């Protein structure tokens, strides 16, 4: 019967990043990652992968800064480029409320020494030829913001972790937790029992199923995120910036000569974790490729992107992110259960914050203190909840519908 210091359930970007930091910082310890499909097959490979650093939710910022700091190290170790696109991000505010938010955001950029400048509408439209910004009250540009290929980043973490000694198993599912009273001692896997000093659940949308076995009502719900990619056009230069349109609850970024955009639907779709198939490609996120949702909100977007009515849409993508009612992450040490850590509740930001999440959980798994302040992410903050109840699922879906940031 095998025993390891740490076992991580889930080989998405969180699981891979944790394995990387753990093997880098604690090379003498043993770690196994168990992924029942292929690495990064679920939410990770589907992300739009904005790697936003400057946010109103400041507790995310140190985590994203760690992602930025680690990328050159991963690239050096592998001798390959991630080809991260540091095209910058424009925030376009067209109402008094959003202008106020933007002023606050600029102050936050200053606090974290992130470059930021105000732009005139004509300058903004020059940078992003598809954008109609003449109604904007304020436009900010943050040149260091970026996007990347999320699958590549996830697998960079995994490949470096493997080089450093991580045992990464694909095609091995975890069926249940092995408990002795309030202590997790290991896992029942497809391949038999595995004992471990510490267990991290990093199973994305499916995490509440495992947490339930340890008696924890994990406060998160799988909520659909979706985006579209237009056909190619000269309106979308590859070097043009990411654009956030909070008044339209929309974002857009270049994608190989086309435009990738997301816009919050009026009614977000949430689903109980026990209804999500293990093979995510088997789930039909939207039979009409999001067209009904898009048509309900297209006027919001059309105000800033009039070309949307004429351009062809070539590609539709959807996946589940883990949302919470307050829009904060849901992760940390499992309350009331020994040796269990929950790297869960990504709130649609998991690519951007993967570095910080990886580092935090590696330290916690090694019995050290968390280098970051996770108070806002506390698993217990909603009290006792049932993550499988319709009421809870609706609350989390509502949080996404209302989201105005990217
Ligand atoms: C459409 C879309 C757009 C997005 N855009 C952005 C963005 O712009 N910026 C950003 O930062 N984030 C974005 N995200 C969010 C981001 O993708 C997630 O936050 C991130 O991928 C979460 O990673 P994860 O490792 O927690 O989950 P996942 O990548 O879902 O990985 C979980 C893994 O656990 C495995 N697993 C589950 N149960 C078991 C089990 N019992 N045994 C073994 N393995 C198991 C699954 O197979 C899966 O591979 C977006 C997400 C979507 C869907």
Structural class comes to alpha/beta
Order of helices and strands: EHEHHEHEHEHEEEEHEEEEHEEEHH
| Ligand inventory | flavin-adenine dinucleotide
* CATH first level of the largest domain: Alpha Beta
Pfam families: DAO
Domain FAD dependent oxidoreductase: 5-364
Keywords: Membrane, Transmembrane, Transmembrane helix
Transmembrane segments: 6-23
Q: Your description of this structure?
A:
The chain crosses the membrane at residues 6-23. One of its GO terms (cellular component) is cytoplasm. This is Putative oxidoreductase. By secondary structure, the protein is of the alpha/beta class. The protein has ten helices and 16 strands. The chain folds into two domains: 2-79 and 149-220 and 325-397, FAD/NAD(P)-binding domain (3-Layer(bba) Sandwich); 89-144 and 222-323, D-Amino Acid Oxidase, subunit A, domain 2 (D-Amino Acid Oxidase, Chain A, domain 2). It has helices spanning 13-25, 43-46, 61-78, 96-111, 121-127, 150-163, 207-213, 291-302, 350-365, 390-402; strands spanning 2-9, 31-35, 89-93, 117-119, 138-142, 167-170, 174-180, 183-189, 192-201, 221-230, 242-245, 250-255, 258-263, 313-323, 332-333, 340-342. The strands form two sheets. Strands 1, 2, 6, 7, 8, 9, 15 and 16 form an eight-stranded mixed sheet that branches. The protein has an eight-stranded mixed sheet with strand order 4-5-3-11-12-13-10-14, with helices on both faces. Helix 1 (13-25) crosses helix 9 (350-365) and helix 3 packs across helix 6 (150-163). The longest helix has 18 residues, at 61-78. The protein is globular and about 65 Å long. The chain starts with a strand and ends with a helix. The mean pLDDT is 96. Bound molecules: flavin-adenine dinucleotide (FAD). Flavin-adenine dinucleotide binds next to helix 1, strand 2, helix 2, strand 10 and strand 14.
